[in-house]
Amino acid sequence: MIRPIPLLSLLVAAALAGCATQTPAPVAPAPTARPAEPVTPEVLFPEPAPEPVPEPATPTPPVTAPAGTPHPTGMPAFPAYPNEAAARAAVQRLLPGNVRDRAGWTNDIVNAFSALHLSYRADNFCAVMAIIEQESLWQADRAIPGLNQMVWKEIETRRQKYLIPKLVLDAALLKHSPNGRSYKDRIDSLRTEREMNDLFGDMIDELPYGKTLLAGKNPIRTGGPMQVSVAFAEQQAKYRPYPYPKKGTIRDEVFTRRGGIYFGTSILLDYPAPYSQMRYRFADFNAGRYASRNAAFQQAVARLSGRRLSADGDILSYDGGSAGASDTRAAVLSLAGRLGLSAGEIQRDLKLEKVGPFAGTPTYQRLFALADRQYGHQPRETLPQIQLTGPKIQRKITTAWFADRVEGRYRSCLARR
User: Fold this and answer.
1) Rounded to whole angstroms, how far apart are CA atoms 49 and 306?
2) How many CB atoms lie under 10 A from the CB of residue 64?
3) Which residues belong to the signal peptide in this entry (predicted)?
């Protein structure tokens, strides 16, 4: 006999507005023919040490961004605007004509660049704007059609699975929440992820056993105008202090325009990635930092090992949150003799796959040297092959589709210069 479970256990599974899941597509080992055109070789950039940002008294930027830094190999050189005033004027020109509150968006974009010490350049501004346009169409808290129906459908599925009497469930959801409305009413009127996040926060704080059953299990994983990962934002705030006065938690700040842009800009631009095109950063934004670099590494491994691998940008498996065994790791280990490396040395290097210095490890360097000798120069960047799925996704889309869509918006923005 299945025992009825507490109502709040059902509500954990009710919200469906989190990040899309990723299903990688397999990549067969490539043929042995030399490629017609080699890509630009990758240049190693050392991973910068975390740089603290002082807590400002007001939301205005505490510092002026540096004039500029050398651009990654293969990318066109865009001049840096000399100061904050010139940067604000440039952002105003680059914004699409239909954007409302242009001063507010400009302020939040430039402030994010200042706080992160990023160069004021048109390509950087347009990269951020392209993500905002793709993810939210310039709406700070965009409505999600049908969110309430999806939630009710999941609640009903769970109610039937665990034999919860409908009358009991209905009565529990009629309880008044802190804003004076019942939980049923709030679910019925759900429109945005921010509303869903607030709803779960109230359930955790107010309902019996809420903290026990729901604390740390809020299913809202992304939010804001750039659809920022809450987990990333919380981690970022641990080593780089959040530059604005907080009105709540870091999670709450993600759902604000200024916080969403700050953390989204950091994900997109605040790491050294020597890509030949901005579209690979866009792919990384969707699939994870260095996914485009790592997917190219996986393709080279597939050619050398003769194994069929998924070029998804995850060299190791992260089931349960920690790095572990994977098909790619097994394939690299099978090449240990040809690489002149021990299994321990390879595993040590592969653990660096999520940071810049991985490209300087013996495993990375020797594997590409071997692949280049055998097959001609191999690309050091490629779009990860990932199928995106989730309750908000109604058609077949991939990380490559996302990167290409954002790339089109990026080019339109640059044309407005």
Assistant:
1) 38
2) 16
3) 1-25
